[in-house]
Amino acid sequence: MRVRDEAPLTVVAMARGSSYFTCEPDPPLRLERGDLLLVQGDRAYDVGDEPGREPIAVIQPGNRSETPTGESLDLPLTHGLRTWGNDPDGEDCMLVGNYASVGEVGARMLTSLPPWLVIRGDEWESPLVDVLLDQLDHDAPGQASLLDRLLDALVVAAVQHWATTADDLPPWLRAGDDPEVAHALTLIHEQPAAAWSLEGLAREVGLSRAGFSRRFSRAVGESPVAYLSSWRLALAADRLVGTDDTVAAVSRAVGYTSPFTFSDAFKRSYGRSPVEHRRLGRD
């Protein structure tokens, strides 16, 4: 298959058999049963039983499947509710999930990940793939939401494993090496609406103002105030698109006392007003 779905994040888990993942200019990567692959970005890539073979199917945006000449394969290769392929009982089977969008908070995480990463089956133990496979063909109320949440959990577990085993991590993921900075990040993430200041955060983690600022900037790559502001605005951007809350309500939820101050900060960061962001995001 040639995948051109332009999804910002795709998860591939080998349920049985094996396959090759090829994303030029990188060399082909063999995936075995139990291996998990995360692919980010909109570059095209191939998945097949042998590297270099001509594709028999092309996956387009919206998960539309076609022959290389443009004929639809959606119905001819569909087997059951959520199974697709040339042989539902074939020796090679993959679980594939992708995200059409990830929002601003998700995009912050993706910028920290490599273009693709693989976790070998013998490197970690997670029951989530088996649970997802077991739930795929169920058709109960809320089943789609359940599968989405299971996929979210699988992504989080995979990123956690990578973050605790990779040698070259971005600064903010290495912040866990400094317990006071890690505590400050937890406070910011879990209580964005609190009236945080540099002095207040430093006091909460038991450091002087100057010492905290220096250690936070060294660990995270930006100052505490800059990180707090960008995190609040990312949360607000997702809330504007994902809810019907008023701009004033969104601004309060992320720690701004004035919707006018919030709107000014949002426009400086995103180049458009909160109302324009909501409209464009929903379009």
Any descriptors?
single chain, 283 residues, Jelly Rolls, Arc Repressor Mutant, subunit A, six-stranded mixed sheet, globular
What does this entry look like structurally?
With 283 residues, this protein is an alpha+beta fold. It has two domains: 2-165, Regulatory protein AraC (Jelly Rolls, Sandwich), CATH 2.60.120; 173-282, Homeodomain-like (Arc Repressor Mutant, subunit A, Orthogonal Bundle). It has ten helices and twelve strands. The strands form three sheets. A six-stranded mixed beta sheet has the order 4-3-6-1-7-8, with no helix packed on it. α1 crosses α7, α4 (179-190) crosses α5 (198-205) and α5 (198-205) crosses α6 (209-220). The model has no long low-confidence stretch (mean pLDDT 90).
How do the strands and helices of this protein lay out in sequence?
Layout: E1 2-3, E2 9-16, E3 18-22, E4 29-32, E5 36-40, E6 45-48, E7 58-60, E8 64-66, E9 78-79, E10 83-84, E11 93-99, H1 103-110, E12 116-119, H2 128-135, H3 143-165, H4 179-190, H5 198-205, H6 209-220, H7 224-242, H8 247-253, H9 259-270, H10 274-282
Parallel strand pairs: 1-7
Antiparallel strand pairs: 1-6, 2-5, 2-11, 3-4, 3-6, 5-12, 7-8, 9-10
Shape: globular
Radius of gyration: 22 Å
Number of domains: 2
CATH superfamily of the largest domain: Regulatory protein AraC
DSSP strand content: 15-25%
Oligomer state equals: single chain
Summarize, please:
This protein is of the alpha+beta class and 283 residues long.
